[in-house]
Amino acid sequence: xxxxxxxxxxxxxxxxxxxxxxxxxxxxxxxxxxxxxxxxxxxxxxxxxxxxxxxxxxxxxxxxxxxxxxxxxxxxxxxxxxxxxxxxxxxxxxxxxxxxxxxxxxxxxxxxxxxxxxxxxxxxxxxxxxxxxxxxxxxxxxxxxxxxxxxxxxxxxxxxxxxxxxxxxxxxxxxxxxxxxxxxxxxxxxxxxxxxxxxxxxxxxxxxxxxxxxxxxxxxxxxxxxxxxxxxxxxxxxxxxxxxxxxxxxxxxxxxxxxxxxxxxxxxxxxxxxxxxxxxxxxxxxxxxxxxxxxxxxxxxxxxxxxxxxxxxxxxxxxxxxxxxxxxxxxxxxxxxxxxxxxxxxxxxxxxxxxxxxxx
Length: 360
Fold this sequence. Notes:
This protein is α/β, with parallel strands linked by helices. It has 2 domains: 3-150, 3-Layer(aba) Sandwich (Rossmann fold); 174-355, Rossmann fold. It contains 12 helices and 17 strands. The protein has helices at 27-37, 52-62, 78-88, 101-113, 126-132, 134-146, 183-192, 209-221, 276-286, 304-312, 330-337, 346-355, and strands spanning 3-4, 18-23, 43-49, 66-70, 93-98, 117-121, 149-150, 174-179, 200-205, 226-229, 234-235, 240-243, 249-255, 258-264, 291-295, 316-320, 342-344. It has a 7-stranded parallel beta sheet, sandwiched between helices. Helix 7 links the parallel strand 8 (174-179) and strand 9 (200-205). Helix 4 (101-113) packs across helix 8 (209-221). It is elongated. The relative contact order is 0.11.
């Protein structure tokens, strides 16, 4: 997977506050987002646009560092605009999407086309909803400004893929994967290389509740494994991948000779639910040396301590490398803790998870 480094068009930090262009057809949303973002001295909203045609001209005039883009736009839909933008002038884009099934599908398509991240806005009482998300929006803008902008995938959004699987013979093992920013596409790439008989795989991706089921459906279309959006406690079976639902923790436990997963509504861990640390800690406790785990791209440090617990328990532990990560926060934190036995590019993560060559 190719990546465009921001240094090629200048380091935003060297230019002072992060320059943001807000693109949304709602005048109220444009006004609110401008006010909320400019409360942070590290961000400057240089302009706004009501549709992609106006945005195109303002990008040329204002040279923003980050773009916020509504998924549903007049005159030209957000996906078409994003596809053209990533082809002609790659730059960090944070999608602003609605908490609906349609909004989730379009947002996942946008992430496949190269958008860095997204934030959800409610259909009703948008003003209150955006105000409540102000801190998260500011954090996502700052992370996006430092992110690596991934070039568009070789397949069109919504199409299936045919990546050759890594050879594997089923054994009594379990794989755990955690990710955040950039993770929806990173996980898709990893699963696309898994064979149909891969070990049971549990996945914690930071994602809103309305988005996790469409995310699991997308993974299922791109994988030889059967991908399940977990909605109840169940046995973990080889050849199946289990995605934590947004807003609920996913944990693994042993029942006799078999592994099961259960959902939890307890407090967020490191501000997240599902939390990668919650998942990894349970795998370390109940699976131990029979596990392989990978911490992929994402902001923050969720999963780093869990990966360390896994390493101490004898599991094979892997961190995605900085060059292939959209944001090297979570895997970078794991590397700093000494939690990762290997740090590899995304293209090798599936191979390392299956091979278990990181065991000492």
